[in-house]
């Protein structure tokens, strides 16, 4: 049986995380988002992290997940019950550890039978959930999942499983056949189905078939060991088959747990954002070759999860743009806007909702970030050298159609040199259809790009009122030659004078 809740045609696999996973987690502030999704649940955190960092690039798969997530939001109690049931089953199997302390076929078989009986109980609960709630789900993912449960876990399946469990408990002993081999040693031991006519009524009426028997002396330890070895050889194949059957059912529950974990995490995230008065929406996707980007009320999800007060959202109409340059006042919301854009892109390509009133964007062939870093404490290289090394590694990973987010890159050198390097990179990225969003204080860079009059470039500016107040809105505007650092100087030293 397959769950197929994350992909329409395959299971969730162990796709390796991208090389830049640490940079994305740090630069885009993924940890608060993952904490809200998972809490202390390691399964949810692992699955959510993989889903967000391994971006989907197929519109159909994203739409498939979005439909499943809509069902999840509408039937949250049922989804959580399925996830809890799967986790409970896995934990109960883990606690039945007796099979791991012995290689004896009898002990393995005993454990397998007991675990199988527990699995039957849990599968019946899962089938019951499908019977009761399947009509309420509309997505093709959940419909296929429930149809699989009702088809494969029908009454005949449970009757057959119950019969096997009763038989494998061997309440009346085992029936084993063997051939006489070389040196009068037993050979070809085979476990046989017990004779059906050997019930108590048949024995009472004397209709039992003739048989030979012997009795061991209570102190015949060697004889007891020999009989035990014969029994072990007889049940060995059955013990292995029962253990493999359990592994198959266990793998199904693990699959259900992991695929449900993503949606349970999305539920927790949605509830945390709504509790803070922040909107969420399902984004519209466009093909990777298009240049689509427009949004309303776009905000930084991670910031919203860590601040007690509501965060400011931004509106933008940036369709057709390949280069977006963001300038303006210090501490005016430029970096927050950049992070909100990166998070929305990655959440969209994970098949999730995003933090906005509305959001539409083209798919990207990977997201890369190049943010400023602190000084190298080991003194291995200078700050500028470190920036160049990270950019070189980033370029090696890039593919046409990617998205690159740069936050104050190359400001560790002088204005002229930093602008020259950044300008050449922007042109190279644009030539290879790589969308670039560049937050910068390099006026030479921003002014030079603006003077080109390229319709594929957009220029945004952090809004600032005449009295120096920051609205934390990013609006269209040509670059200015100042970042209004004087505002910060007066604010800091005025506060110091008051103290």
Name of the CATH architecture of the largest domain: 3-Layer(aba) Sandwich
* Count of alpha and pi helical runs: 16
Q: Would you state the CATH class of the largest domain?
A: Alpha Beta
Radius of gyration: 33 Å
Order of helices and strands: HHHHHHHHEEHHEEHEEHEEHEHEHEEH
Q: Estimate percent helicity.
A: 40-55%
The total count of strands amounts to 12
Query: Which geometry do the CA atoms define?
Result: elongated
How many structural domains are formed by the residues?
Answer: 2
What profile does the largest beta sheet have? 6 strands, mixed
Name the CATH superfamily classification of the largest domain. P-loop containing nucleotide triphosphate hydrolases
Can you give a write-up of this model?
With 499 residues, the protein is an alpha/beta fold. The protein has two domains: 142 residues; 221 residues, P-loop containing nucleotide triphosphate hydrolases (Rossmann fold), CATH 3.40.50.300. Helices cover 51% and strands 13% of the residues. The chain has a six-stranded mixed β-sheet with strand order 8-9-10-6-11-12, sandwiched between helices. The N and C termini lie far apart (69 Å). 33% of the residues are buried. The mean pLDDT is 85.
